[in-house]
Amino acid sequence: ETGVTQTPRHLVMGMTNKKSLKCEQHLGHNAMYWYKQSAKKPLELMFVYNFKEQTENNSVPSRFSPECPNSSHLFLHLHTLQPEDSALYLCASSQGYSNQPQHFGDGTRLSIL
Amino acid sequence: GESVGLHLPTLSVQEGDNSIINCAYSNSASDYFIWYKQESGKGPQFIIDIRSNMDKRQGQRVTVLLNKTVKHLSLQIAATQPGDSAVYFCAENMGRVDYKLSFGAGTTVTVRA
Q1: Of the four, A14, A60, B63, B81, which is 20 to 30 A from B54 by CA?
Q2: Tell me: the pLDDT tens digits for A12-54?
Q3: How many residue pairs bridge chain A and chain B with CB atoms within 8 Å of each other?
Q4: Which of A23, A19, A21 is nearest to A5 (CA)?
Q5: How many CB atoms lie within 10 A of CB A79?
Q6: Measured between CA atoms, how close is B15 to chain A, in angstroms?
Q7: How many CA atoms lie within 13 A of A42 on its CB side?
């Protein structure tokens, strides 16, 4: 596989469930990102990892918990989510920080019942 | 404030015509800009980028123009095709913190046959 792969593509969960989103990049990049995309709103940066170290938590509620075991894999653990958390969650990667394009996966469409 | 905006939320273009998508940014410290294309059900796809030491850059059928004086960015698509129908986003870096991209809300381009 090439590029950035996200699984699952769709997820429906209740507010008390625990689930995880997975992202894998095959580009040899060292920085990975989680974004939230809601309808009619710009992309919102959630978390940033550089060489497996978290360098940004953009005031994200603790019900979202990221994990980056290595430079190729990124997870987003979900617990006790709210209906307003329903959105498209996008993973991206880039080669370093400075002025490099971020390459996105196709996202996980999350619906909270 | 630091925000990126697009002049028009929608653009309808006749197939074969040229398209121009505009973007205004407010952070004068930004020195890197990217255009993305997002088709329905997919993640944003990198189109072209430009650094602030340039005012024009060309790719395959696309040209990005940067006017730092008025903080304006545009994407020109030559000979628009049905496959160009998508939402187009501009993004700027946040100046000092290079990896943080600020995204606009997007322009929906519809190509008429």
Answers
A1: B81
A2: 999 888 999 999 999 999 999 999 999 878 999 999 998 878 8
A3: 56
A4: A23
A5: 15
A6: 26
A7: 17
Beta carbons of A42 and B42 less than 8 Å apart: no
Residue B95 confidence (pLDDT): 63
CA gap B51, B83 in Å, rounded: 27
Distance of CA B23 to the CA centre of its chain: 6
Q: Half-sphere exposure (CA, 13 Å, Cβ side) for B71?
A: 14
The three-class DSSP label of residue B60 is coil
Q: Which pair of structure tokens corresponds to residue B51? A: 């650094």
How many residues make up chain B in this entry? 113
Q: Which residue of B has its CA nearest to A89?
A: B43
Q: Which residues pair with B73 in a beta bridge?
A: B23, B66
| SS3 call for B37 | strand
Amino acid at the residue B53? N
- A105–B contact, CB cutoff 8 A: yes
